[in-house]
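The passage that follows is intended for readers who have already worked through the single-chain material. We present the inputs for a multi-component assembly, then the predicted structure in tokenized form, and finally a short commentary. You are encouraged to pause after the input and sketch how you expect the pieces to fit together before reading on.
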Amino acid sequence: MTPAVRLVGVTKRFRAKRARPGVKDVFLDPRGWLHPPPAPEFTALDRVSLTLAKGESLGVIGRNGAGKSTLFSVVAGILAPSSGTVEVNGRVSPFLGLGVGFSQDLSGRKNAILNGVLLGMRRSEIEAALPEIIAFSGLGDFIDQPLKAYSSGMQMRLGFAVAIHAEPELLLIDEVLAVGDAEFNARCIDRIRGLRAAGTTILLASHNLLSIESMCDRAICLEAGRVVAEGTPQDVLARYRALLGARGGAKGTIAPAPAEPSPRAPAGPRRRLGLVGCGRWGRYILQDLVALGCEVSVVAPSEESRRNAEAGGAGRIVARVADLPDVAGIVVASPSVTHAHVIESLLGRNVPLFVEKPLTTDAESARHLVARAGDRLFVMDKWRYHPGVLRLAQLAREGALGRILGLRTIRQQWGNPHDDADATWVLAPHDLAIALEVLGQVPAPRFAHAEWQGEPKDARITSLVATLGGDPWMTLDLSSRHPTHRREVHLHGSEGVASLSDAYATELQVRREAGGAEPERIALSDEMPLRAELEAFVRFLEGGPAPRSRAADGLLVVETIETLRRLAIGGAP
Amino acid sequence: MTSHTSLYGRLRHRLDLVRVLVSKELELRYRGTSLGVLWSLANPLAFAIVLHIAFREVYRVPIERYPVFILSALFPWQWLSTSVGAAPLVFFHNAPLLKKLRFSPSSLCAAVVAGDLVHFVATLPVLLLLVVVTGGHGLSTSWLGGVPLLIVIQAALTLGVVLLIASANVFFRDLDQLVRVGMSLLFYLTPVVYPESLMPGALRFTLYLNPFAPILVAWRTLVLEGTLSPWIGVAALQAAILLGAGVQVYRRRARLVPELV
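Having made your guess, compare it with the prediction:
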């Protein structure tokens, strides 16, 4: 069968921008003009080969500048490769930008026709499709208004509606899915899924890693113009995270916590660490530690975790905690309910422990552990290393939003990947750690309402809303029964609200007054928090400052969650 | 969806593309004005009045029906010069489109020429009226075939020059300035404000080299005398050569246009 796309050894070089010869140069330096020195070249794509079967969807992941856009332009036929061959069968709808060529002074209808023809449709076809385009974009009578009367969301909707109606056989989607409101977004994704089901071949580049996981059969990861990973979306995403981590470490932009006297483990010629647990999350920890240059001994009790450990480059794999060799520090990433027991069995080793949140799933054992080993026990609160949260904390500190009034966090998803603990233990530690970082405290719980199953004493909570504190206040909205994934953090100040709209958001938005004014945007680095917190732990083992969440912080989070559960399910707070 | 793989399908799409690009340009330019495209008459008419005063009243050039004489060449010159003047930057002004969409960049050149053609066509009734008002001399059935013929030749000629300049300017950016200087020189080297018979003998050969002279002489002969001048043949030959050269240069450069603009 003819493939939809076949690239063989495609290389694309760009000449570095430099002044082109003008008349002056011809007169002043005729020889130089006739024989110009070779311009420095930049290789955007380096011997890329890939084949897409008809109907297949391929995700393309990579950092900014990794070559994604060049790849798409080459496949779209906009750029010619410097060498190699490009074969594309079928009509292409390049989605490289929405509404390219829109004129603000023309009506939506005229812009739709212009854009459609530019996308390769016949004028008659797009005129026939106009009623459907208007319906899909939800513009109604606005279609005959000039574009400048539209909000930017409406323009995006029109652009998307036109592009999707070009009935392509090959759809190229370059980072445009984050347009419009959530509802329109869902419709776009629906429509793309529909095209996929109907056999459209799709090439998707996105920073929104979730959409790649849910919409692609296969993925590749580009780095410096080369395909560095290829395989299932899950595997390639893991590789990408490791790559981001390696970069984040090199930059080292994480503000260190104040140094305090801490027990210090001897740092060997190599960083020797232990890792307890190598499940769906632990394998990312392993990859990041290996990328940091650590020699990692892994406790892998199950067959699956053993496979993860092997694939992730573990130095040594043992079945039981007791079999761990001597190491400088240990990362605990076993299921939450086992934390208390695992930590207990490791305390005798007298090395720093870095425990995944939550510290434990009951306050009593947490108190006990803090009392025994509070100085060498730290909690992995990756949100305290998230660029967006750090930036919110900075805004609060600097008074950029006036007086800080409160914090609103939303965390919703469908299902709970961990069967040992319910939504409060899986989700709430994130939000409370964000409060710790941004507000400098976890406000006291005041009210909580929950949806739960089972007996009150071991209730499994699936949704929880809660208010905490007063000055500042905090509201919490958690659910493992929400159809889409949501992670939002809003910091309310007397002079404005700063919002983080997603874990992978590339910017913070600050809004200061009511009305339609454009929000201020604060760009965020693409540093990966997991990588940053592990690096902080490794640095600590070598004598650096302590990780941000100490055992006492972990205990505060556990106590707060217990109180919230009690408020929601019943019994005296 | 129509197949774009067939030559016919591609051609039809190309025509649609030029059509929507032209209508966008026209609508944007005359949006909100009450006279619309008639404004394209303002510039040559004002210029013609100035020339009329200067040459007819001050220098007393012995040319009959001077306004018709001037405008019969000035209107087609206006078409030529606006298209050629827009040529150097046509790709740069549309860089976002070229970088994000796949369509033939030459459509943009064709749209420039076609847009200015629309303006030119709007001037034809004015010429006709002027001829009638000044006695009707030169009105003949030759107009019926001559006007479309000359339009086709001039369109091909202009498109050729626009393609050449637009493609070359992507690599040699000084062309924009050169074209401005060149066009104002060429205006006086071309028999627009004087009859070609006034051209000194030593310079007459330039009439054949100047790609704009034969077509303008042909227009003037048609409007003033009502006859098809032998210059039409020269103009057609020039158009064929220039269009051929333009297409050749463009073809060799087209694939690099999106990354260089």
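Commentary: Chain A touches chain B through 34 residues (CB under 8 Å). Residues 233-251 of chain A form the longest helix (19 residues). How closely did your sketch match?
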